[in-house]
Write a structure and sequence with these properties.
Blueprint: H1 6-9, H2 18-30, H3 34-47, H4 52-64, H5 68-82, H6 88-100, H7 103-116, H8 123-133, H9 146-164, H10 168-181, H11 186-198, H12 202-215, H13 220-233, H14 236-246, H15 254-266, H16 270-277, H17 289-301, H18 305-318, H19 320-323
Helix pairs in contact: 2-3, 3-4, 4-5, 5-6, 6-7, 6-8, 7-8, 9-10, 10-11, 11-12, 11-13, 12-13, 13-14, 13-15, 15-16, 15-17, 16-17, 17-18
Length: 335
């Protein structure tokens, strides 16, 4: 019998642990491989489910992918368990709320962060966020409970699902409930007017949006909606006035940037729309079928059919709903 190799007896088996998975997740994140990063962080959390650093880093990846509600669920869990040991969570939550359009909550958490960490790592970003939001404090509703915020997020996600699939009647029913339950949440009204218009209630949609903008003349969503409404109903003078205004506005938040780009596409200003799409962070908008629908449309109408097909094909791989639809530029009417 031969004597076993002594070196074999010195081999130490490598068993991956949470730290290994976490390091791999960070590495993938730094390379902007966000889906792979999520998988590594999920493995890390399977080893240590309550590790605050793992949860915080995973939330940042969710933010990059545009899954802001999932990010905030993790961050809220960390704050509940560890409190002010992880003060940065307040700023990260504020940033996610801003992207979701929940401006009152964004301001609340940004101010909490500045109160608790006046010289923290995100102080400059928090101050910048508050200045960008430029919120009218008279409209602030301090009585909103956390469970109401959760309900808003649930409604938002469901409405988003139907709007992205152009299921207008389903979206309208949910938005009517949402407006009744959360009358201060203005975004629901703009989405309601938009869904009404494409469901065929054009006169009512225009009247409601015009009334809203009279009472709230600073609302960008109203102007984008009305530009689309006037374009389709051929109200040229009002349309031209709005276009001049919108061409000089560059929103800060990614959701409004996307909305601006899709608006220019829907009203036939494809070169302008293409320029706006190029300013977007794709990683934050992969969850939006409309990103691929309208981006590919822009390329087609500026004469780059090859790029249009490439963007559309990518969108079909990301979203099965697109694979079931005809290419938007082949429809009788762009909606």
């Amino acid at each position: 019998m031969t004597k076993p190799d002594q070196s074999d007896q010195n081999i130490i088996p490598f068993i991956p642990d949470g730290e290994f998975y976490f390091a791999k997740g960070v590495e993938a994140y730094q390379k902007q491989k966000f889906e792979l990063s999520l998988k590594w962080f999920a493995k890390a959390l399977s080893e240590k489910p309550d590790h605050p650093l793992y949860q915080c880093q995973m939330s940042i990846v969710y933010t990059e992918l545009g899954s802001y509600h999932k990010a905030n669920q993790l961050l809220t869990k960390v704050l509940t368990a560890y409190g002010d040991e992880y003060i940065d969570c307040y700023y990260l939550i504020a940033n996610n709320y801003a992207h979701l359009g929940l401006l009152q909550d964004a301001i609340k958490y940004a101010e909490l962060y500045l109160e608790k960490a006046p010289e923290g790592d995100f102080t400059e970003e928090a101050v910048g966020l508050l200045s960008v939001l430029d919120f009218d404090e008279d409209e602030e509703d301090d009585d909103w409970a956390l469970e109401e915020e959760d309900d808003v997020l649930i409604y938002q996600e469901t409405v988003f699902y139907h709007l992205e699939r152009e299921e207008w009647q389903e979206a309208i029913a949910l938005l009517e409930e949402m407006i009744a339950l959360f009358p201060e949440f203005s975004q629901a009204r703009h989405e309601y007017h938009y869904a009404l218009f494409f469901a065929g209630e054009t006169k009512e949609a225009i009247a409601l949006e015009e009334k809203y903008v009279q009472d709230h003349p600073e609302t960008l969503n109203s102007y984008m909606n009305l530009a689309i409404f006037y374009y389709y109903t051929n109200v040229k003078e009002k349309f031209n006035h709005l276009i001049t205004m919108l061409q000089n506005i560059y929103p800060v938040h990614e959701q409004q940037k996307l909305r601006m780009a899709t608006t220019f596409t829907q009203i036939g200003l494809y070169e302008e729309a293409l320029n706006r799409f190029r300013l977007l962070h794709k990683s934050k908008l992969k969850g939006h079928p409309s990103y691929y629908r309208w981006f590919s449309t822009c390329y087609f109408f500026v004469g780059n059919e090859e790029k249009a097909e490439a963007v559309w094909s990518e969108g079909c791989k990301e979203h099965s709903i697109l694979a079931k639809q005809s290419r938007p530029w082949k429809r009788d009417k762009l909606i």
